[in-house]
Amino acid sequence: MTTAWPYPHIVAHRGGGSLAPENTLAAIDVGARHGHKMIEFDVKLAQDGQIFLLHDDTLDRTSDGWGVAGELPWDKLVLLDAGNWYNSAYKGERLPLLLEVAERCQQHGMMANIEIKPTTGTDDETGRVVALAARLLWQGQTEPLLSSFSVEALEAAQRTVPDLPRGLLLDEWDDNWQALTERLGCVSLHINHKELTAERVAALKAAGLRILVYTVNQPARARLLLNWGVDCICTDRIDLIGPDFPNE
Ligand code: G3P
Ligand code: MG
């Protein structure tokens, strides 16, 4: 099990936070332009097993496609526009493959938090395929941190590439956090910051877990969370909460 924690204290959510169309190469470039050293992004499988970036199950919100993304093969997904919904300046931006994102992160010298976001019913396969790809694509680099709300996907990742670091995602506090993270061999808990108190942070740290919180967009809140002992702030306001944000 990997025990080192090489990750910085600020992470750009979905690549470029709210300053670019989420989960695109353009977003990663915006994150890099703001000096960020680590990004979070969401991945799932196309019908033919290609790994690409998208947050929602469906294409409707963040592309000019519609319907369940995972029901389409990559040769259809690649034709879609994933930038114009955000701003016409980004027209022509595509959904990116994990392969392209790995290359872009490495060009920028950025670390990655790969959130496994399986299409409903594909949790095991997605966890397995993403873990294998992550191992291969980040060879010789700082290992990407895998995370998921899906226990099944994390179990599959654990089985497939046991020594890749994993974090359990929780949108709500779960009193069963310790048993779950131990069973999944997690190095970190990734949690909605609204669920945390100083006492909960202390309990997680006492159990040896690192803590990533999302999505923190107010500097005062970020400062408080870091003071409590939170390790990573995942933010949409990559301009206000930048890589030089004080960590004391
Ligand atoms: O990984 C942190 C955060 O991205 C989890 O929530 O819905 O933004 O993917 P969501
Ligand atoms: Mg995410």
UniProtKB/TrEMBL annotation:
<dbReference type="GO" id="GO:0008889">
    <property type="term" value="F:glycerophosphodiester phosphodiesterase activity"/>
</dbReference>
<feature type="domain" description="GP-PDE">
    <location>
        <begin position="8"/>
        <end position="245"/>
    </location>
</feature>
<dbReference type="Pfam" id="PF03009">
    <property type="entry name" value="GDPD"/>
</dbReference>
<dbReference type="GO" id="GO:0006629">
    <property type="term" value="P:lipid metabolic process"/>
</dbReference>
<keyword id="KW-0378">Hydrolase</keyword>
<protein>
    <submittedName>
        <fullName>Glycerophosphodiester phosphodiesterase</fullName>
        <ecNumber>3.1.4.46</ecNumber>
    </submittedName>
</protein>
<dbReference type="InterPro" id="IPR017946">
    <property type="entry name" value="PLC-like_Pdiesterase_TIM-brl"/>
</dbReference>
<dbReference type="InterPro" id="IPR030395">
    <property type="entry name" value="GP_PDE_dom"/>
</dbReference>
